[in-house]
Amino acid sequence: MATHYSSETLDLSGAWTKIRRADVHLSTLHERIQSFLDSDPNEVEIQSYSETGEVAIYAEPRREPPVLEWSAIIGDVVHNLRSALDHLVWSLTVHHQPSPPPTLSRQRVWVANGETLDSLSISTPAPGTIANDSSRGPRPKT
């Protein structure tokens, strides 16, 4: 059995909060789609051919669905579900670690390769540039 850092029960409140928020966005999407469908967005014509007994249905859109709006809402759903996974992994990590995981407030005591993080030389690329990774080749000009 794994050694637990946390003596408390596993806290999944962050993950559940994100899932509930995704559900709100999903409900909004369903409402928007239903509202669009209720607005009679298509002109429909039905023709019956008595000689053959066939029925033909023709539909012509009166207006296009608001796919940009819908795609933004779908993006919110996916983002919140992905964030729920982040919260879940963090909660599981905290719960099942023998010592607390590193955070910004604990960076001076976290040791990587025998050195504390504050003694390591860490640089960030300048804005508008990418990290030096020669395997990617030269950066394309825009």
Describe this structure in words.
The protein has 142 residues and is an alpha+beta fold. It has one domain. The chain has helices at residues 13-38, 67-96, and strands at residues 42-49, 54-61, 111-112, 115-116. It has a two-stranded antiparallel ribbon with strand order 1-2. Strands 3-4 form a two-stranded antiparallel ribbon. α1 (13-38) runs antiparallel to α2 (67-96). The longest helix has 30 residues, at 67-96.
Q: Work out the number of β strands.
A: 4
What is the radius of gyration?
Answer: 27 Å
Q: Would you tell me the structural class of the helices and strands?
A: alpha+beta
Q: How much helicity do the residues have?
A: 25-40%
The oligomerization state is single chain
Low-confidence stretches: 105-112, 131-136
Q: What is the overall shape? A: elongated
Q: What descriptors fit this protein?
A:
alpha+beta; 2 helices
Structure in a nutshell:
The chain has 142 residues and is α+β, with helices and mostly antiparallel strands. It has helices at 13-38, 67-96, and strands at residues 42-49, 54-61, 111-112, 115-116. Helix 1 (13-38) packs antiparallel against helix 2 (67-96).
